[in-house]
Give the backbone structure.
Amino acid sequence: MDWPKTYQSPLHANVFGIGIAFAPPHAISTPRTSPNGTLIAPAPPRTGMPSAVMGRQVAHSIADMIRHGATEPTHTASMAAMGAVCIASAGAGTRDGTAAAMTMYPSCRTTPGSRPRAQRERYLRRDRLAAHWVKHLLHFVFIYKAKARPGWAFLPE
């Protein structure tokens, strides 16, 4: 079983669930244990980026169903085919803030036992100030998009 692509309910054709509202079909990577025996089971990224991509594709599918009479979703967005970016900011100072930036592609493996991500497909960097400023900028971009200001649709998720 692979990650959902349409987020349409199997029981009700007019109900969709995006973001972390769906039940993942499998773990995103091999569970491990800590030195004291605690299970570490990675979960799908909880950033807003994949959820926004899913939401956009579901919205396009719903629009096609309404406007053109499509009976099935016409757009897809599988976490096994999209990347994720997360910037975690710690601190509010303009000169002393810190942050960590992470990118991952694909967000999730396609099936259990599939090839693990190559090192070039994962990136984590703890940064003193650059990622902090990017996170600060993204806050304003998010608010701009949420208010549907001119050109909002052209801004990336």
